[in-house]
């Protein structure tokens, strides 16, 4: 599976700062020093309806991570999956009378278009669950043969009790986990499971549903969590720098994935930091496909909203905060974009050397994009009011906003 084209990232004078970021597992901020190649895995879409503002906000957060690392003169090894076979996708295809593969391909293509328009830097490896199945089957077999998994009516389940570190990612107690498991794709009430929280690794073939050769597992398809583990281990290995996604992935997805990997390798941790973006609401409720309260990037683009304004709307909220999309949020972003473009359109201006460092410091401090925007606002206000004589300043501001915030002026 191919990703989308990369926009050029301008080089800035000097060097950026190491990223200090909130780690869900520890509940505090840690400084990441990845070495010459930073490694990040971000969980991708289930392509039955893409791309709403909740998606866009999440991928914007991890795009900022990449930009901060690139500014420190590191390379970035970024991997993202596509869950192109899963219950919600199959259910939507049946509801709409569509072939599930055509639905997945269409929505994945739309996602690529949206990411390109928003200038999100693409992953080096963009892997679908279906194409990962040949690598998933041996991992499930290894877990089963090691006693970390068991069969139940043809399905194979992972035993969470086999991992002494289970629970460290989300920090939740068993009761909270059980509730979220039921809400987020698990089956804690299924009879015969060793532990209600045990997640499925391999689902035996069901009538009317797609299935693949699972070797000794029999025909079936993979569970959700093992998909990402197989892809991450194949392309990044253990101990990569950031596992990222929306805050609703901390449990069960990232918790289970960490345990799968740790049981497979005997190593800990799966990722050095677990980073989660907040949820975006509309009309007082979390934006979600199940509720149908979605604002789509593609719909805004069809209405001729500048993608740079959409990106500024996302950047105006801290990535970890829960916030609500409103017409005013977009109107403020459109106005900000116009102000910034007016400021950099002048032939000379106020020195921008200090501004570059302000933006760098804000983003290095747990991706504080609102603080970075405020710094550019102050420069633009003075520039539009008084101006200056530095001929290189407008260009430097444009390159800074492009390189670090992904906004083309």
What is this structure, in a nutshell?
With 409 residues, the protein is α/β, with parallel strands linked by helices. 43% of the residues lie in helices and 15% in strands.
Notes on the structure:
By secondary structure, the protein is an alpha/beta fold. Strands 5-4-3-10-11 form a 5-stranded parallel β-sheet, sandwiched between helices. Strands 6-7-8-9 form a 4-stranded antiparallel β-sheet. It has a 3-stranded mixed β-sheet with strand order 13-12-14, covered by helices on one side. The model has no long low-confidence stretch (mean pLDDT 96). The chain is built from 13 helices and 14 strands. It folds into 2 domains: 20-286, Rossmann fold (3-Layer(aba) Sandwich), CATH 3.40.50.620; 305-405, Up-down Bundle (Four Helix Bundle (Hemerythrin (Met), subunit A)), CATH 1.20.120. A hairpin with a 2-residue loop joins β12 (280-282) and β13. Helix content is 43%, strand content 15%. α4 packs across α6 (224-235) and α11 runs parallel beside α13 (393-405). The longest helix has 19 residues, at 53-71. The protein has helices spanning 53-71, 87-96, 100-117, 129-145, 174-183, 224-235, 250-265, 297-302, 307-315, 327-344, 353-364, 369-385, 393-405, and strands spanning 20-23, 28-31, 37-42, 75-82, 125-128, 149-152, 155-158, 200-204, 220-222, 240-246, 271-277, 280-282, 285-286, 323-324.
